[in-house]
Amino acid sequence: MQPVSALLATLLLLPLVLPGEIQLVRTVSNLVNESGICQCVVHLPNNSILLQQLEKLQSTVQELFGKYEQERSRASEYVQAIDDNSNQALEMGSMSESRNPRAFVPSFETSAFNLLSLEFERMQELATQLMAEGGVNGSTDLLHQLQEQVTYASLTLRLLGDTEWRSSGALQWEVDVLKGRLRAWEREREHDPASRYSGAHRPPGSCAHGGLQKVSSPLVLQLNWRGLFYKAGAWGRDSAPSSTSSLYWVAPLRPDGRNFDYYWLQKSFDDLMLLKNYEEWKMGYGDGSGNTVYKNFMYFNYYGTSDMAKVDLSSNTLVLRRPLPGATHGNRFSYAGVSWKDLDFAGDEKGLWVLYATEQSKGNLVVSLLNASTLEVEETWHTSQYKPGLSGPFMACGVLYALRSLSTRQEEIFYAFDTSTGKETHLSILLDKMLETLHGINYCSSDHKLYAYNDGFLVNHDLTFSTLEHKPPRLPAPRRSGVLSPPKPVKPNEHSRP
Fold this sequence. Notes:
- By secondary structure, this protein is an alpha+beta fold.
- It contains 6 helices and 23 strands.
- Strands 3, 4, 21, 22 and 23 form a 5-stranded antiparallel sheet that branches. The chain has a 4-stranded antiparallel sheet with strand order 5-6-7-8. It has a 4-stranded antiparallel sheet with strand order 9-10-11-12, with no helix packed on it.
- A hairpin with a 4-residue loop joins strand 11 and strand 12.
- It is elongated, with a radius of gyration of 37 Å.
């Protein structure tokens, strides 16, 4: 590469023809001496205008060379960065090879990519099988779209394998979401309620069981409709017992994690998965992610107050607003890791509930059964659990189940309070999660599922309840009248049933 001075001299020696055909520079041979210094002879006329033009030209050339040096320096930095990355990759490969010389393979053939490829193959097989068996109510559009997404993600995987293997973590999310959607659709394809949740068949609204036994692994359906920045919110189905209602609602909060302003309503699972046939409503005065839907009404905390609010979903009309006596607000006693959740509404087989804390309870969780029509408190129970120490609760068959966080990937349902008996029970039921925080948790009595809003993603879990052990009824003892006397032996032919 020539020095800048040599390049500048070369440019100056080019024939420059200005108006008037005046040649300013004469070509001179042997420009560079033995020391590498450029020498040249320039004949300039005594013309101030031409001198100004030449100075301007020289200034422009120097500016161009300055930009050239800047770009060359930046390119050198890029080359150095690439070399550093290559060295790191070689070091990682050397470490892996030193631990297990036979296990080292190129980055696009690592175990992470092999596992992802295997997952895609299984999903493609599942999608093909479901297509062969037919869709739910003829809804084959969902499967076609899912197949296209699987194919696209598979192509992305191959491209990543040829470029940057570190991006496999981001792709893993896409795999989990697609896999969850396929599994969810597979379960919904049969309309038998027994196929929608684990355990024995129980009709919607039935509490003929012995309590919660276990929780399934999470099914990640999709990201909420407003995007990744809307990490807080809630979603679910109408929690009132119903065998026919299939209303789904999704209510992300604003990025501040407090203000509830918009929500979507969709009338079928297919519409939810395909993000179509939705109704978008503006709320504007909701506070926190403690809202729920019960009998086609949405219940939530009115913004900046301890008031309960009720909105008719058929018209998005606020039909009732009522204060909750003694309840704290303003983020006074919210859950651990979840802000602005002062009033937490829940619906189950027994009715509509609100979970909150008061100054009198010293922050411990309080459970109240509400009249769904008037929002009057019908009955109240006090628990021994400090509300900010919980990551969230839910109600099922009149039993409060409380969760606490064990790690960024696991929760524990550790406490139960039965409102019918007033008894507390300590449990240890693990609940896996995809991301760190569960914001809104809603139970649906129609399908016995938990609907969790997990850092912006819509996730659900199947709940398994223990089966009641039925013992044969004992025959009542025969009644005797008069004075009791010792029993007399009875002959076989004289025996009669009581």
